[in-house]
Design a protein that fits this description.
By secondary structure, the chain is α/β, with parallel strands linked by helices. It folds into two domains: 2-210, Spore Coat Polysaccharide Biosynthesis Protein SpsA, Chain A, CATH 3.90.550.10; 240-313, no CATH class. Helices cover 43% and strands 20% of the residues. It contains 13 helices and nine strands. Helix 1 packs parallel to helix 2. It is globular, with a radius of gyration of 20 Å. The termini are far apart. Residues 4-171 form the Glycosyltransferase 2-like domain. This is Glycosyltransferase. Pfam families: Glycos_transf_2. InterPro entries: Glyco_trans_2-like (IPR001173), Nucleotide-diphossugar_trans (IPR029044).
Amino acid sequence: MIISVITPSYNQGQFLAETIESVIRQEGDFSIDYLIIDGGSSDDSLAIIKHYDTLLRNREWPIACRGITYRWISERDNGQTDALMKGFRLAQGDIFAWLNSDDTYLPGTLETVAGAFRVHADTGLLYGDAHYCDTAGAVIGRYRTEEFDLDRLASANIVCQPAAFFRRQAFTAVGGLDVTLHFAMDYDLWIRIGRRFSCHHIPRMLATYRLHETSKTISSDTLIRNSEESLGVTRRHFGWAPLTRVYTSCSILCAARLPGLFGNSRLALAAAASACTLIRSLVLNRGFHRNDLKLLNRENFRKLCRSRIEIMTGGKP
């Protein structure tokens, strides 16, 4: 079995060595096809990439699997999705995955994945659990995954991208990543694979998902576009704007636009976001959608006065 891992990279030399080592340290009965697609970084990323290339070429790195093919490109691109598709077009593996340049695999991850794909021969997508960690790598929470349910995917991100792996066959059959998307390309891919192939959750920690100021997940510069794109993908695939996703977008918009004291007050922010959600949901769904009744539960109401990070990581307000 050959597992192709793509790492899109741009000016994240601070984390890149840890990411690379987490891939090439993997042990087991499989081969690794590793491609790093750098967007022309201006920091020390290229030196780091070349360093590991030299180690592997000179056989100075202890290889604990059947073999490692290490390739890289450094040139300007049109963003992360474009970089990923460059990598996947070059990939030689039976199994595909991507690992961002600030995330890592845990020891034993690829061995677990290879074994699971051998057992679940008809599965198009496998995914496990992941720790959230901070800039220093300290664990600050857990990504909330669940057994795969396509309908549930409409209202919750139950598949963790750095802990997800999919067959080349499934990826190719659904047309790969949508290059028009810059934030929700993974979410969009899970939906399209889930509609045509069996998907399976592995209840085991496979990766770390790093949260920091420049991360697309929490960066104030990209949060609005990220949430709006995810909402758009949901509406396109499910014909529905779930309250949870509308509230996420509204809370981010309100936090960015409410003046001074109001923006810093959780109660005021929750009230403004709730009012915005009600109006926007009625407009987007042309009335109240019956599926939203399932989302009016205690757990979701408890999230109203919690920050995005607290909701993601499971922290207490």
